[in-house]
Write a structure and sequence with these properties.
With about 575 residues, this protein is mainly α. The chain has 26 helices and six strands. It has three domains: about 375 residues, Na+/H+ antiporter like fold (Up-down Bundle), CATH 1.20.1530; about 120 residues, NAD(P)-binding Rossmann-like Domain (Rossmann fold); about 80 residues, no CATH class. It has a six-stranded parallel beta sheet, with helices on both faces. α23 links the parallel β5 and β6. α2 packs antiparallel against α18, α6 packs antiparallel against α8 and α7 packs antiparallel against α8. The radius of gyration is 30 Å and the shape is elongated.
């Protein structure tokens, strides 16, 4: 089948299977796995060479790890070091021991084989678990961060595990690069990420198009991943390191926005490819053993993770839910078992059994998490995660960081109120960052970028952009999709105010009005009028102008009638000034 024909089959399988499984509340991931099994060699055999497709689809995991790295600022990662070492390291150690002993007793009477199988099964699926935690809205909560530290430790351990498998092998089909090549690759990624990527992205943002920024984002991820792979390291590790290095970059949100569509599609393809690679004939031949082993894997890993999280003072419900989400075997088990089979450490038949057990454990995870949630909620307990918010997530977003937006930003910063600022002028961003402000590159009139910037968690959005059409587009988007977010908008003139009045609950500030009043007071003062009288005159004008503006808004008057209202208003204003002059005593 042609590439175009295969693509059509993949898309059709995803479009049909995923909505059905989500409708049955079984989750999108199980839908992808089922779609892969149906179109794969074991059932319909509509698409050949599933191993090649899986290798390509691993790019989805690479993109996922890059996005995860973007969310982990270096200081935040440093704060997690104890959780990564103790929680993640404890899970990996105990799972390897218990699963290795079980493999020795029930699969192969060989300690080396048992160790390799134990290490492979101890790894959970990063893509699978994070997708589940996102669906259950727990990734940013304390128990979710514990689970993430476990996954992070597993990802860091993949390379040492592969090196160990290679060292245990009697013969290796390929020579690994020298140790200094790997070290040089890591140093190279650190140097490029620290000193070259941001200037490169500034040039692209200034001279390129939006498509150029998308291409640049993909280029950074793929180039880093391939470079690390050529050095004998993991593509995912390279992407993860690149993401961490860009976590403090002004382009963080823009990069995440550009990567997101590709990440979602390729992750879906990845899970479809896993389903295609499962040997269902083996499941038919040995159903009791495969299903029992998959259940045993889920039970053992859940119990170990539950015990570790309980020891770290997490609740029973949190510990159980996270344990279930991380209980499956992971995609790296396919890589470890493939290398072990090539190195004659594990028989091909045993490697096929392990990969099928991992696949079945993946298929079991989503239903188990859903059943646990249903059982927990049926006991009339309050929701655990939906009401929790990430304390690091700013509740204020400032769209447009020119002179207008900076005034609010400085007041917020002086009072330790966190905010996220967006501006699409790269040079302006670099200038402002010199003074310690946290600001990101991005077009706030794009809904996907607003989501990445945290609009889901925001309470207030200050629209401070200086282009009227962009401001109105932002107001329209947020009013439609996030009606609970309070909008404070910079209005250039009365025409802008009239257009903003269509949206309920929007507060506006005329950008020149307050400063114009202040200038008027200074003129009156220098003209010889005392401060009290000048203050009163400006106050009268302010009330009058606001009343006139409100009259226009209330009656929805056409622009052609505004001249007549203006003349009438001027007459009223003169009479007001005359009466005030008498009352003040001039």
């Amino acid at each position: 089948m042609s590439v175009l024909g295969s693509s059509m089959v993949f898309l059709a399988a995803a479009v049909v299977a995923v909505p059905i499984f989500k409708r049955l509340k079984l989750g999108a991931i199980l839908g992808y796995l089922a779609a892969g099994m149906i179109i794969g060699p074991s059932v319909m055999d509509w698409v050949s060479e599933p191993e090649t497709i899986l290798h390509f689809a691993e790019l989805g995991v690479v993109l996922l790890l890059f996005v995860i790295g973007l969310e982990l600022e270096p200081d935040k990662l440093w704060k997690m070091r104890s959780e990564i070492v103790f929680t993640g390291g404890g899970q990996l150690l105990f799972s390897t021991i218990v699963l290795g002993v079980a493999a020795y007793l029930f699969i192969e009477d060989n300690w080396t084989t048992g160790l390799v199988i134990g290490l492979a099964l101890a790894l959970s699926s990063t893509a699978f678990a994070i997708q589940l935690m996102n669906e259950q809205k727990i990734l940013r909560t304390p128990p979710g961060q514990k689970g993430f530290s476990v996954l992070l430790m597993q990802d860091l351990a993949v390379i040492p595990i592969l090196l160990l498998v290679q060292a245990l092998a009697e013969s290796s089909s390929a020579e690994a690069p020298a140790w200094w090549v790997s070290v040089a690759a890591i140093v190279g990624v650190l140097v490029v990420g620290k000193f070259l990527i941001n200037p490169f992205l500034r040039i692209i943002s200034h001279y390129g198009s939006s498509e150029s920024m998308t291409a640049a984002a993909l280029l950074i991820v793929i180039a880093t991943a391939l470079g690390m792979q050529e050095a004998g390291l993991s593509m995912g590790m390279g992407a993860f390191i690149a993401g961490i290095l860009l976590a403090n970059s002004s382009f963080k949100h823009q990069l995440e926005t550009e990567i997101e569509p590709f990440k979602g599609l390729l992750l879906g393809l990845f899970f479809i490819a896993i389903g295609m690679n499962l040997n269902l004939q083996l499941l038919i031949d040995e159903p009791v053993f495969i299903v029992s082993a998959a259940i045993g894997l889920v039970v053992i890993k859940t119990a170990i993770i539950f015990a570790i999280l309980r020891a770290s003072k997490q609740t029973n419900t949190d510990s159980m839910r996270v344990g279930l989400m991380l209980s499956q075997g992971g995609e790296f088990a396919f890589v470890v078992m493939g290398q072990a089979a090539m190195s004659n450490l594990v028989a091909d038949s045993v490697a096929s059994q392990i990969t099928l057990i991992v696949g079945v454990s993946m298929a079991m995870t989503s239903p188990l998490v859903i059943l646990h949630s249903m059982w927990f909620n049926s006991r009339n307990c309050p929701a655990v995660y939906d009401t929790q918010s990430d304390t690091d997530e700013p509740r204020v977003i400032i769209a447009g960081f020119g002179r207008f937006g900076q005034i609010t930003a400085r007041i917020l910063a002086a009072n330790h109120i966190p905010f996220t600022a967006l501006d699409k002028d790269a040079e302006q961003i670099e200038f402002v960052k010199k003074f310690g402000n946290k600001i990101f590159y991005g077009d706030a009139s794009r809904l996907d970028l607003l989501k990445v910037a945290g609009i889901d968690h925001a309470a207030i959005l200050l629209v401070a952009v200086d282009v009227e059409s962009e401001a109105l587009k932002i107001v329209e988007l947020v009013s439609e999709h996030y009606p609970d977010v309070k909008l404070v908008v910079r209005a250039r003139n009365r025409s802008t105010v009239m257009q903003l009045s269509k949206y309920e609950g929007v507060e506006f500030t005329r950008e020149m009005f307050a400063s114009g009043l202040k200038a008027a007071k200074q003129v009156l003062h220098n003209f010889g009028i005392d401060d009290q009288a000048a203050e009163e005159m400006c106050h009268v004008f302010e009330l009058h102008d606001e009343r006139m503006l409100q009259e226009v808004l209330d009656t929805n008057i056409e622009m052609s009638n505004l001249i007549e209202i203006s003349k009438k208003g001027r007459t009223e204003l003169e009479s007001l000034f005359a009466s005030d002059e008498k009352s003040i005593g001039h």
